[in-house]
Design a protein that fits this description.
The protein is an alpha/beta fold and 300 residues long. The chain has a single domain, classed as NAD(P)-binding Rossmann-like Domain (Rossmann fold). Helix content is 43%, strand content 12%. Belongs to the short-chain dehydrogenases/reductases (SDR) family.
């Protein structure tokens, strides 16, 4: 593993039997409706050198927060860190065997880390064998599909499990924050040429929902899901037309500043699920339909 650091330059369920200690109840009540910005001290952002990750990093820094970014390409990390005033580490989150040593180094260098943004993600087009679905001749490379699953699922999961012991042991009055970036495609897999990506984002959504429910009992870790719609980034770089998610080609797409403005509103108001543009309708459908069924099941 290569680790390079830039040099310095939840609502209470009142129907269920309570399993909270008085201290947990006090801490949970204090966080209800509180701005997430008030909870964040130092944030680790995966995939922070560009796109949504960089935009989130810049937003947090503008609020006076410390930010550490990580990613695969040192040259991009180095230039971004210098431009925005962050620290950086080189880490390919798909290589999950490297994560324990990375987290140990991170916590040694930044013991004030209390926030994780699981933002790094890969989207590749795959054509199911025998389907003849598109004219892109994408094929189905299993090694690339495995790497996408490692990046989009195993990386976030391993980082969460590695960092949660630190987050849950923070002193009284401090909270951990875990933010998982899913996608509208995790709610409705309408991008048919991306079956692996859609599945990984559905996993992120489900994992985040269950994680939030379980961690309510510890009451000092806020769990947030960000649900991006189509945003004008380089996510589609492996498609035949890598610009088909840009506003010039897709009027429903959001420019990064538009998207971040909506994310800022959600963080400011302390929302657990934050979306923008077309994503808001899908989140509302979940909340008013299966989400209610889930909450009923979670109370049993």
């Amino acid at each position: 593993m290569t680790i390079v650091q830039r040099q310095p330059g939840t609502k209470v369920n009142r129907k269920a039997k309570s399993t909270y200690t008085p201290e947990h109840i006090q801490r949970l009540s204090a966080n209800m409706g509180q701005s997430t910005y008030d909870l964040i001290e130092t944030a680790l952002i995966t995939g922070g050198a560009g796109g949504i990750g960089r935009a989130i990093a810049e937003n947090l820094i503008s609020k006076g927060k410390k930010v550490v970014i990580c990613g695969r390409t040192e040259s991009k990390l180095q230039s971004t860190a210098k431009e925005i005033g962050a620290d950086y580490y080189v880490l390919d989150t798909s290589k999950v065997d490297q994560i324990p040593n990375f987290v140990a180094k991170l916590l040694k260098d930044h013991p004030d880390i209390n926030t994780l943004f699981n933002n790094a993600g890969v989207q590749r087009p795959f054509e199911i064998p025998g389907s003849n679905f598109s004219n892109g001749d994408y094929g189905f490379d299993l090694s690339k599909a495995d790497q996408e699953i490692d990046t989009n699922i195993r990386g976030p999961m391993h980082l969460i499990v590695a960092l949660l012991p630190h987050f849950t042991s923070l002193p009284s009055g401090k909270s951990g924050v875990v933010v998982n970036v899913s996608s509208v495609l995790g709610f409705m897999p309408s991008s048919i040429i991306n079956p692996v990506y859609n599945g990984t984002k559905a996993w992120i959504h489900s994992f985040t929902v269950n994680m939030r429910t379980q961690l309510k009992k510890s009451a000092n870790v806020k769990v947030i899901e960000i649900v991006p719609p189509t945003v004008s980034t380089d996510l589609h770089r492996e498609r035949t037309n890598p610009d088909d998610n840009k506003k010039a080609n897709n009027q429903a797409a959001l420019e990064l500043p538009e998207f971040i403005a909506e994310i800022e509103k959600g963080l400011q108001s302390g929302e657990d699920v934050i979306s923008a543009g077309t994503g808001k309708a899908l989140v509302k459908m979940w909340d008013e339909g299966l989400g209610k069924k889930y909450e009923e099941a979670a109370r049993k």
